[in-house]
Each structure stands twice: as C-alpha cells, then as structure tokens.
C-alpha cells in the first residue's frame, strides 16, 4: 500500500513537538536502563543469607545472589573471607527492573533489614567482613545513596550515627553454591540462625513489631517528618470549586493529565527569582535557583524544593513508560521527570506552567513562604 508524503507530514510534526516534552525514543532507552536493561546494586548488610532473603521480597527485584566484594584476593572462598584477612565483605548483588523499583527503593528495603550503625560486624557475626557497605556502580547511584543516607541520618530512626561505608564498586566474586538461596534450601537451619542472631528483634525495636504486616518505608518516614516540621497543611478543594476557580487550561492539565503547548505557556522562559507552587493548594514545588533552559519550551528544573511535596509514579499513556510527577496533597498532574538533565542531579523535571503559580522573591514573606528566602541568600 502506498501513502502520500503530504499525508504524513502532520504526523511527523506532531512527533517532533511531543518528543521535546516526553523525551526522544533514544532517550527512553537510556533514561533509566529500561527496555530490557536491568540495573544492579551491590550491598553489604551482614550475613548474606539474611540480606538475600529480605531483598528478594521486594517487588521489582529480579534476582539476588550472594558473594564477596571489597578485597584484593581473586575468587576468594568463604573460609578465606570469614577469616577476616582478605578485606572482602559478605555482599549481595541485586538485579532489579528500574521501571518497577528505583535504586532508592532498593536501598530503602536494604536499610530496613540491617543494622547500618555497626561497623564492627553485624549482630552475632563479628569482624570487618560483616560490616555494612554500599558499593555504588555509577555516579548516579553514589549521589542517590549519599542523599538518602543524609536523609536517614536526619530522621534519627536508628538512634545512632550511620556507619555504612559508601565505596566504588570494583569486583564481585560469587559465593559457593551452598550459600545461594540458603534460606530456601535449608529453611530450618536458616530460621534458627536468624532467630538466634538477634536481627529480627533489633528490627522490631526500631520499626515496630508490626513492620512486616504494616510496613512503612524510610522515605515515608522522612517525608512525614518534613511535613510535620513544615507546620502547614494543604487541602484540595472540591471538583465544583476547581471548575469555578481554574482556567480551562489549568483544569485540563491538573485534573485531566493534560499537556500545554511548548513555548506557548506562561513560565517556560521566566527568568525572575522566586518559587513555583501548586496552583491549587499552594504546595511549594520548585525554585528558580534550580530552573534551567532545557530548550523544550516548558519550564524545567533539576530538582523539587522539597521531595515531600511531589509524588512520582509510572505513566503508561505513551508507547513507552514515563515517570509522572504529581503534587502530594493537591494530586495535581504537574508533568514528567526525565534522566537527561544537567548536573548535579542529571534530572529534568519538565513541568506545565498551568499547574503552577509563580511567587516572586520579593513576595515570599507576604505570601507566607518566608522560609524559602534562604534559597536566594546563599
């Protein structure tokens, strides 16, 4: 069947415009190692029988294997590592699908099942070969782990300073076959060891005895703490009120997950100093200090003002999955975040102007956002 080129030109034009906002096809392949490319995390949290068991329970994790990392001895044996003389640490390598679970979520599961404050061992297992560590595979993993550990430290849930090492990954040696899936192959001995080790009693003390039936992530705790310290509440009006107060475009974008036109929106080229808040609730979202000209025709930022006010979720409305960004309390559709932004985050929060209201630096005090004046005094 033959087609006239003139009939296809409108389609090509539409694709060119849309890829600026949604990311190109090539970007979608490399954005977060998607389309069949999984990611790997290498983590040390004491006995690898236990950490392997705990990480395999996380949805989105494809496989977990036990092994050794951190030392100079090639292909070490368990006997050599357990002697504490090889500089190796017992670790697990976690293979996960970044479309289903993020690296931070893997770390969240990891930290909620270890003692990250003990650098002399892990529960009954003593010695440097059992100390906690994260071996990062990329600068992005290093950055995520650094920020997440800083957030955990500020949260104070472990009651002691973190002693978890953050080290560049160099090599991984697979442990002997009998160590793999030990909790499945030797369930009775494993349960006895785990109970006797004190791991679960420690975790119950930290996270509560209902931590398995009613799990709360560290990220949820961090966000809740941030909201409590903020001291403000944000309430979403009824749909009837929204239809009366929002413009047609604002309603379309925030309530119907719409997208405004590139270069034809209010803030794409706004260079004034100030912050951007949710147009409905007033939740603080982004700052001009993190805004940059992405060339897409939409306002773009490297990070939110406070992660507690934004929620991300996978969006399957296009051919390939994207990460949608919404406000926490207003549940407004804001835009999407892509991994093709500049340093220091490498992220591009590509937002709709219609979903936000701009408050100039000079008006922050009058509008009740005086705490953000510090962003412009640094």
From TrEMBL:
Transferase as UniProt keyword: no
Pfam families: PMSR, SelR
Record's catalysed reaction(s): L-methionyl-[protein] + [thioredoxin]-disulfide + H2O = L-methionyl-(S)-S-oxide-[protein] + [thioredoxin]-dithiol; L-methionyl-[protein] + [thioredoxin]-disulfide + H2O = L-methionyl-(R)-S-oxide-[protein] + [thioredoxin]-dithiol; [thioredoxin]-disulfide + L-methionine + H2O = L-methionine (S)-S-oxide + [thioredoxin]-dithiol
Keywords: Multifunctional enzyme, Oxidoreductase, Signal
PROSITE patterns tied to this protein: MSRB
Domain MsrB: 239-361
PANTHER family with a match to the protein in the record: PEPTIDE METHIONINE SULFOXIDE REDUCTASE (PTHR43774), PEPTIDE METHIONINE SULFOXIDE REDUCTASE MSRA 2 (PTHR43774:SF1)
NCBIfam families linked: msrA, peptide-methionine (R)-S-oxide reductase MsrB
Protein's name in the database: Peptide methionine sulfoxide reductase MsrA
Gene: msrB
């Amino acid at each position: 069947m033959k087609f006239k080129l003139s009939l296809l030109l409108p389609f090509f034009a539409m694709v060119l415009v849309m890829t600026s906002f949604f990311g190109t096809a090539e970007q979608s392949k490399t954005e977060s190692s998607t389309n069949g490319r999984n990611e790997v995390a290498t983590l040390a949290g004491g006995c690898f029988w236990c950490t392997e068991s705990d990480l395999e329970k996380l949805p989105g994790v494809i496989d977990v294997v036990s092994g050794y990392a951190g030392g100079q001895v090639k292909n070490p044996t368990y006997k050599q590592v357990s002697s504490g003389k090889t500089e190796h640490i017992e670790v697990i390598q976690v293979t996960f699908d970044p479309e289903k679970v993020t690296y931070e979520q893997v770390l969240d599961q990891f930290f909620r099942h270890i003692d990250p404050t003990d650098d002399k061992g892990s529960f009954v297992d003593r010695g440097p070969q059992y100390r906690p560590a994260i071996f990062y595979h990329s600068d992005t993993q290093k950055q995520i782990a650094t920020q997440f550990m800083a957030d955990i430290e500020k949260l104070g849930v472990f009651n002691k300073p973190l002693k978890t090492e953050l080290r560049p990954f160099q090599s991984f040696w697979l442990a002997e076959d009998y160590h793999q899936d030990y909790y499945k192959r030797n369930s009775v001995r494993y349960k006895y060891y785990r109970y006797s080790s004190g791991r679960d009693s420690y975790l119950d003390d930290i996270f509560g005895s209902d931590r398995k039936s009613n799990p709360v992530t560290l990220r949820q705790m961090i966000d809740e703490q941030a909201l409590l310290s903020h001291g403000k509440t944000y309430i979403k009006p009824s749909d009837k009120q929204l239809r009366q107060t929002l413009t047609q475009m604002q309603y379309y974008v925030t309530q119907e997950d719409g997208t405004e036109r590139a270069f034809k929106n209010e803030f794409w080229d706004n260079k004034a100093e100030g912050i951007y808040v949710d147009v409905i609730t007033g939740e603080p979202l982004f700052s001009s200090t993190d805004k940059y000209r992405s060339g897409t025709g939409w306002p773009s930022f490297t990070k939110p003002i406070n992660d507690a006010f934004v929620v991300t979720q996978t969006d399957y409305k296009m051919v390939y999955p994207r990460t949608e960004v919404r406000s926490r309390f207003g549940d407004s559709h804001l835009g999407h975040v892509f991994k093709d932004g500049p340093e220091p985050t490498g992220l591009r929060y590509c937002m709709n102007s219609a979903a936000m209201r701009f408050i100039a630096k000079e008006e922050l005090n009058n509008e009740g956002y005086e705490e953000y004046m510090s962003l412009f005094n640094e």
